[in-house]
Each structure stands twice: as C-alpha cells, then as structure tokens.
Task: structure prediction
Amino acid sequence: MSNSKFTFGPVPSRRLGRSFGIDLVPFKTCSYDCVYCQLGCTTNRTVERKEYVPVIEVLDEIKKRIGEVDADYITLSGSGEPTLNSGVKKLICGIKKLTPIPVAVLTNASLLSEKKVRDALTEADLVVPSLDAGREEIFRSINRPHASLCFDRMVEGIVSFRREFRGELWLEIMFIEGINSGDEEVRRFIPLIEKINPDRVHLNTVARPPAEEGIRQVPPNVMEGIKKILGHKAEVIVNYDREHEGISSSREEILSVLKRRPCTLSDLVSCTGLHRNEVLKYIAALKEEGVIIANSEGGETYYQTGGKTH
Result:
C-alpha cells in the first residue's frame, strides 16, 4: 500500500461501508472553496477539465491492488472535485472491466450542467452530488465557487443528470450552524429536493476541523428537526459520538503512531482509518509546528516525531 499514488483505503464510511478511494486531481484542486472542507482551503480553484492524473496509470494501480481489496464501493473522491479530470468516463469504464465492485462518485455537482460531464458519469452505480444552499447568496457564502459558476445552473445540472442517470442518486446537504440551518433556509431545500427527486437525502454537518474558523456544527436535536422538515427521504448521517471524538483525537492518534515508529502517509492511513488527505492536513500542521519531521528513504517519505514537544 505504501506505493499507492492514486488509491487509498479501503476506509470505513458510514454511508458506503468499506470505501476504496480513487484520487483523480492534485491536492485541493477544486471548483469550490468550501468553508467547511476538512482538507483545508482550495489552492487551485478552477473549472478547467483535463487529465490531471493519467487515467491509464490509475487503472494500472487499481489492477495491481484489486486482488487485496475488500470493499463495498470503489469511490471517486479524494483531493478535490473528481469530475475535473477529463478522463473520468474512461476510468469508470475501465474499473467496470476489472471488478464487479460498484463505483460511486462523490461530486460537488458544479460541473453537471455540462453534458460531457453528465455523460461521463452514466456508467457509475451511485452518484452523490452536494447541495449546500437553497439560494445564490448562501451558495456563495458556503461553497465559495469559481467565479464562472452560478447557483441556478448548478441546480439545473443536478436535475438534468437525475433525468438521464439510471443508477442511484443520493443528495448530500452540509448544514452549518447559523448559516443554512435555520427554518427559513432549510425550507428552501424542499422544492429543490422535489425537483431533483433523489433516492435519498443525506443530512450532514461539520464533524472534522473545517477550512475556516467559526464554522460550527449543528446540534443533534436541530439536525433531527431539519430531517422532519425535509421529509421521508432525509436521514441524518453524521455520527456525532464518533466524529466528535475524531475532532479531538485524530492529531493525537497520528502522533501516537509516529512515536512508536516512522511511517509513510499510507501507513498512517492504514493505522488510523482516516482519509488520506485528512492525514495530509494533520501532517502539514504538525510539520509547520516542528512536532514531526520528514525523511526520505528508498524513494519513500517517512514521518516521525522530532523537534518541539506538543
């Protein structure tokens, strides 16, 4: 696993079970710069579609690893928006030839207004688009999209994709206390959900350290109230107990592992069960603080404790 460039996991997912992740863009290359993103702020906000990572190499890595993978889904997600990779259709079709494991795509939905993007996802088994706002102002406040994107066109893209797609579509909504969690803003989602007609509506809230300070988690009782407003398809998916523990303990868990032995990034993913890019975020912070150091050996980067105490 330590030689994996484009794949990670399988990692536990409350929605997807054991999820084997595929990373199709460089770290934090995205069409949005969401205030709640656990991977930090977007460093390359773009709507340019190109083959950011070579699909043939991704498929080759999947082929080498697929025999050892026990997963419920192969999931296109990772470091940013996967549909920015222009080879996503070729990748999905290639995966289908390698394994019967269903393919899921987690997307922010920003590019679904483009027919080429919708066509690229038609062979997926499950697509999970995000919709975090009921109007343009909140869309810009939460998702901070690329300047060329607009709320109405994004919504119409989801609606069009739903009409064309024959697989499962689960809509995800991220709620932030004081921004889109009030009754008035919640009710704005009702006609949009009816128009999109997803199979499920997943209600989420901030569970890991977000990109921006002051972004607050919606309490469980409020999330349950939101669920009642949005109807029978809605379900709260955030695991408060587990995720709250994760906020406070992930850093210490990584340090605990590194105190025992030097580890590669992939070693830390395996040991902690955290998303590869979430581990990267903690590593970057710990290195900046001087708590850990990085050494190269045999073409691999190993992290270990050293320098300042914490």
